[in-house]
Structure to design on (169 residues):
């Protein structure tokens, strides 16, 4: 049985943009976490510093893109609903959380890791008992936790968006 064709409306276009923004952000997070990072460390195994540089470069671009996509999501949601109340729905709150976690990761954790990387010269050549390496490892753990939070909040946002969609305009 075929479903009736939905009318081509501005609301449907704006909803599509919301889904697209969140989907692209989630997809980039999954791709970086499960393909780029492990692949860089596997392919560039003899030189972990180069692998880290590739992942760091990619992470920065993903963070900046994610923040832009999150802001676009919120603006499009506001355009669609014409109500600031729609910015406190569960899906929107999840996206705001994603933006906040990403900004913390990029502008505090990643920035401090970059300074440590420069101070060490080579992470690979730094002695295991070095306080700089210990701090770098601690920050890396925080970075992974923040990225996991972004991913989980994104999945939750997608779930809430689907619920909104099935509930109506």
């Amino acid at each position: 049985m075929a479903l009736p064709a939905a009318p081509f409306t501005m609301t449907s276009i704006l909803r599509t943009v919301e889904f697209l923004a969140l989907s692209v952000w989630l997809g980039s997070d999954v791709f970086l976490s499960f393909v780029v990072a492990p692949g860089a460390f596997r392919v560039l195994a003899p030189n972990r510093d180069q692998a880290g540089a590739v992942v760091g470069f990619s992470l920065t671009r993903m963070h900046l893109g994610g923040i832009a996509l999150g802001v676009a999501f919120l603006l499009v949601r506001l355009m669609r609903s014409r109500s600031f109340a729609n910015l406190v729905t569960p899906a929107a709150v999840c996206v705001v959380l994603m933006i906040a976690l990403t900004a913390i990761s990029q502008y505090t954790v990643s920035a401090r890791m970059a300074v440590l990387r420069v101070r060490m010269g080579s992470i690979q050549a730094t002695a295991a008992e070095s306080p700089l390496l210990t701090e770098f490892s601690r920050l890396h753990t925080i970075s992974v936790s923040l990225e996991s939070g972004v991913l989980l909040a994104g999945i939750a946002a997608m779930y809430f968006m689907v619920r909104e969609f099935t509930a109506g305009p």
Remarks:
- The chain has one domain: 11-167.
- The longest helix spans residues 131-167.
- The chain has a mean pLDDT of 92.
- The helical segments are 10-43, 48-81, 90-120, 131-167.
